[in-house]
Amino acid sequence: MGKIVITNHPLIQHKLTLLRDKNTGSKEFRSLVGEISMLMCYEATRDLPLQEVEIETPIAVAKTKVISGKKLAFVPILRAGLGMVEGVVALVPSARIGHIGLYRDPETLKPVEYYCKLPADINEREVIVLDPMLATGGSAVDAITLIKKREPKSIKFMGIIAAPEGLEMLSKAHPDVDIFCAALDEKLNEHGYIVPGLGDAGDRIFGTK
Ligand code: PRP
Ligand code: URA
Q: Which of 3, 42, 152, 168 is deepest in the core (most CB within 10 A)?
């Protein structure tokens, strides 16, 4: 079974409170999603493989570490996952970015795929899938199924708020995937929204409602 990590760092929890508040406007919401994603990326990359290198400091030769191999690819699930990209790329500027477009059918709540473009060398990379909301889990499960066909070295999922239903579905469907979220909320409502959640993440990031 993969790890499930709820990153309850005080800075993340404080920013999450501002994010949930219905009076927070799009500009601040976007900044907060970026900041939370950056802080969570620090935790999600904790076990990246390192290799030893030798460099010269102004004082002496030093044996020290760099991240080994081809490193990372981030894959945001459109649209809301896009809001997380800036924050994670600030920490890992050499990462490649793939995109998977999925929307939830409002009636069935099942994800519908409309776009998939992944880095050509994704099979040599560790992948972190980005989506702020893990609600029923359908979008994350389908996105990860698509990525697995390209045989990356590993896959992690990084979200902001999870519902118990989504966490269970994702960890059952992809038990090899580590899951990082900032909060585990109470439940889903009858429309598949996370309670208390933060509303529709895509609409709040892009100001479409
Ligand atoms: C939202 C969210 C996730 C999905 C989560 O996207 O960004 O991708 O719902 O729900 P699930 O876990 O039940 O699949 P939405 O379908 O609203 O599309 P959007 O990001 O384009 O607004
Ligand atoms: N998608 C969202 O944007 N919010 C939810 O609460 C559930 C799915």
A: 152
Ligand 2 pocket test, pick from 170, 193, 204 with the greatest ligand atom count within 8 Å of Cβ, gives 193
Question: What is the Rg, in whole angstroms, of the alpha carbon atoms belonging to the chain?
Answer: 18
Note if 47 is an active site residue. Answer: no
Q: Whose CA is nearest to atom 2 of ligand 1?
A: 133
For residue 151, CA distances in Å to 2, 45, 79, 144 come to 17, 19, 24, 11
Number of Cβ atoms within 10 Å of the Cβ of 64: 11
- The question of whether 200 is a catalytic residue gets the answer yes
How far is 131 from 37, CA to CA, in rounded Å?
10
Q: Rounded distance, CA 146 to CA 192, Å?
A: 23
Q: Is residue 70 helix, strand or coil? A: coil
79 CA: nearest ligand 1 atom: 20
Quick: pLDDT tens for 183-200: 999 999 999 999 999 999
Ligand nearest to the CA of 113: 1
User: Full-prediction pTM beyond 0.90?
Assistant: yes
- Give the separation between CA 203 and CA 42, rounded to whole angstroms: 27
Taking CA 131 as the corner, what is the angle to CA 125 and CA 137, rounded to the nearest 5 degrees? 105
Look at residue 67 and give its three-state secondary structure. strand
pLDDT of residue 207: 93
Whether the CA torsion 147, 153, 159, 162 is positive or negative: it is positive
Centroid of ligand 1 to alpha carbon of 70 (angstroms): 30
